[in-house]
DNA sequence: ACTCTTCACTGAACCGGTTAAGGGAGTGCG
DNA sequence: CGCACTCCCTTAACCGGTTCAGTGAAGAGT
């Protein structure tokens, strides 16, 4: 990238116009004491007239804060776009960043090594003042990286995965248990779960919780399948679960996100099974999608937007040296809609 | 945001360790001529040993390029996340940015004034080296802003909306015409369109094209409704279109995005209408959603990922002073699936 | 033997801010 | 009148790179 054709106006120009030194302008714009009201006004007037605002780059270099928060998201090559969850999450993060007039540096990476490299480069290069880390897996290399760099971060994930990092998490185990109990209470004895990517930490947590809940309730059948979170994978998993003989197949299926649940719904339709009469479906991550299908999808819903906002707020507190403040967000609550009912 | 606890390693440290001057290190890391192979190697070795990588901030300040591309997206307050289209678009943009090892600065703004302010601050503050501008409307203030600032941008939108800016666009008019002709060819004489936000430029273009196509084909009925692109709005619009007496209601509906089409599909189901026997549905922006419903949704499909990549490539060419190179991307093509058929 | 190039590298200015130390004017006080 | 103390503001160093004129040594040309 090359130079700009624009004659840039700098602090020097403002200082000259206001008849003061660069330092004075700096003081004024940082609302620091040591300037008379009159001078301050003169400086702001000059700045306004010249259309000047301080260069964040120079400001950053000069050693003050960095008003950018980093977020790297792992996606396989040529991703088909992000899931609704991410969108809502990002939107929540942004709502808080905006209040602090800082921005989000977003990067899609292909694997963990790349993410580590990117985060390190961002931090080393003072591109970001901190990062939000998502999608933790077992023995996540980012824990060590963060500690080595001394970089302020907030980890989105259960403390068992995020080591000593400040983290904000959803109590997936409890939510899974609640989902299974709910279905069991409706009378389901054969329940399946179409899970997310097996290498993700929260998937393992949900898998373990599902097993435990199934055991505790002495279900007659409990299946779990791992996928990649895509609609296609969800459809495939559903198809294979439902092709068994009626007496052997699950009467209820829990999905790890809403895209897969939607896919499952259409697979059921395509196989001539009625929802919820023949099979109950329960989604996760309640986005607007769940309310658009027919029947509407029951879901474990949570305030993803609020989650993102909470994470961003926590990051700011970490950056400003506040108390770490790891904490869970409210556990997803079951929102029954049209896709769940007692088995026939 | 406050200081970092990390002892930062700078170019000076690397220079000292390699026994050369700062300038030499700079030359090496920018692959500029004037250094012997031996020295170059020594410098890289030293850098590797110290774990140093150049500070982008300092590099930017020193007047070379800025490796960040800005994208501000207008969303109403507390957005429910972005549409699939944006996700795919962003993902395509990223794929190209990654090759140039630059990043995306993403910001959700609430209105046009805020976007203008953000873009200006980014550019003035040398936060970005250029921007991608989306969602053009008539008399868009960003055209003037861009020219005033001399900022490199690529506008996503038809040249009639983007003034003299370098732009990349989809030929919406032709696509709409094709969609209407297709439905007419199936035998539909009463066609409706559930459009997007009325203030968006491409919505107007589609609206005009729809009117024209309807007129040219002398359709018996042609309706158009504006929405906000949300599933809820799509459902509402569909409901009101389909409540008319069978002889007076549309037999085919075109939607401006896929979320609304999915919503429309479930409204039809809820009203006891069969798709495509009673009503044909045609979506826009073919994301994976369209393949997940039952029946699958016919769509005007388009390589959104590739579109994003194209836009990013064009931006790089603008930034490096290449020929503007405004151009259209391939017109969306009709992908017939299960939701369209001749009327009963 | 002497000048001319070329090559490899250094030194210093500079980018646009921040910040600590310092200086001059005005006031209070002995 | 002299001294200390504020209050405002300036000066200059610094952040971590880039860039360019310039230097010194080796090799080429005559």
Automatic annotation (TrEMBL), chains A, B:
PANTHER family: ALANINE RACEMASE, LACI-RELATED TRANSCRIPTIONAL REPRESSOR. GO terms for molecular function: DNA-binding transcription factor activity; transcription cis-regulatory region binding. It comes from the Bacteria. SMART domains: HTH_LACI. This is DNA-binding LacI/PurR family transcriptional regulator. Residues 322-344 are annotated as: Disordered. Keywords: DNA-binding, Transcription, Transcription regulation. The keyword Transcription regulation applies. InterPro entries: HTH_LacI (IPR000843), LacI/GalR-like_sensor (IPR046335), Lambda_DNA-bd_dom_sf (IPR010982), Peripla_BP_I (IPR028082). Residues 9-63 form the HTH lacI-type domain. Pfam families: LacI (PF00356), Peripla_BP_3 (PF13377). It comes from Streptomyces paradoxus. Gene3D superfamilies: 3.40.50.2300, lambda repressor-like DNA-binding domains.
